Amino acid sequence: MSIKTEYQTGAELSVALPKKYKVFLLNDDYTSMDFVIDILMNVFHKNYQQAEMIMLDIHKKDKGLCGVYSYEIAETKIMQVHKLAREQGFPLKATMEEE
Predict the structure, then answer these.
(1) Which domains does the chain have, with CATH numbers?
(2) CB neighbours (10 Å) of residue 60?
(3) Does the chain have fewer CB atoms within 10 Å around its N or its C terminus?
(4) pTM for this one?
């Protein structure tokens, strides 16, 4: 037995992509460059060369782009950075901006 079904819609479907958010680390006078590199490698999954370049951007330009993510992932990464920084006694801050 075979069932045949036909569907007809009068409206077009449009799907909006979720907004993306840029996550930045901000420069401060206390957080060590080595710790920033560790954060970039462990939280943002950068290789050493990428982490070093971003760390130098943070140092020279007062902030550096770590990645672009959905809201929830960006928020989670920021919380991870703040938690790890506090555990090590650093005032490192992370922020996000809508892309």
Answers:
(1) 20-98 (3.30.1390.10)
(2) 9
(3) N
(4) 0.83
